[in-house]
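Structural prep section.
Before we set up the soaks we want a predicted structure of the protein with glutamine in place, mainly to decide which crystallisation condition to try first. Input record follows.
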Amino acid sequence: MDITIGVLALQGAFNEHIQLLREAGQIVASKENNSQKKWIFKEVRTEAELTSCDALIIPGGESTAISLVAQRSNMLEPLRHFVKVTRKPTWGTCAGLILLAEAANQTKRGGQELIGGLDVRVNRNHFGRQVESFQANLDLPFLQKADGDGQDVETSQKPFRAIFIRAPIVEKLLPRVSGIQQDEAKAEETVIAPSRAMDESVAKDITLADVEIMGVLPGRTAAVKDDGMEEKLDAEAGDIIAVRQANVFGTSFHPELTGDPRIHVWWLEQVVEAIGRRKKS
Ligand code: GLN
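Run finished without errors. Recording the tokens verbatim:
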């Protein structure tokens, strides 16, 4: 079975994703015995290329530039169709997360189009000018397997060194709606994604769930603890930097710039599961 993973290659760090996907594909293959799977990783610039994909990554870069190029190359509607109508697995990193949000702040009206797919509001360039870029060790619960799952337990539990570059955060989880985010549309500085309904005859396997918080950058209260007490990862205590809603996943940071393939491995496994579910339904 061939599985084709596309990386949107209109602007930004698409090449780095392809490199790390190749590495991750080998790790996934080595974990499975006698797998008949063949991974194909490809750059996506046209509708025909997108249609041939089973899953898609939207890379980091500049979300305004990506959306502008997508608009000029007639890719916005095919992307909305891929993510919101057929609901194929999609992962956005940094600018990619912004494009997958249903609402985004700090964006000029008319200056930015969104694809949507995640019922969240992101705040662009959240960390401001002072700390435009920084690195942080994240404890990402979805990577931590008690049995190591093919790698040693220590590797699976090691914090993920995340690179944030003029990064957005998820500042609000929005109600799950089937149309547009009406309340968000009222705010001055917020842009919203147009509504596209899921095609239930194609996406038979999908139940639109609420947004799940997958990772948090500990806030000051959580990070500053030095009294020897165990630090608790608490959604209230920090900024939300990873979310998932059904097949759509978004991270504020850039795993493709670290050389650590763990999130790519995890995501490829999610894609395999999603394809399996769709086949059965
Ligand atoms: N600040 C960028 C934007 O608004 C995102 C930065 C990134 O992808 N590293 O699109």
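Observations: The domain at 2-280 is CATH 3.40.50.880 (Rossmann fold).
Flagged for discussion at group meeting.
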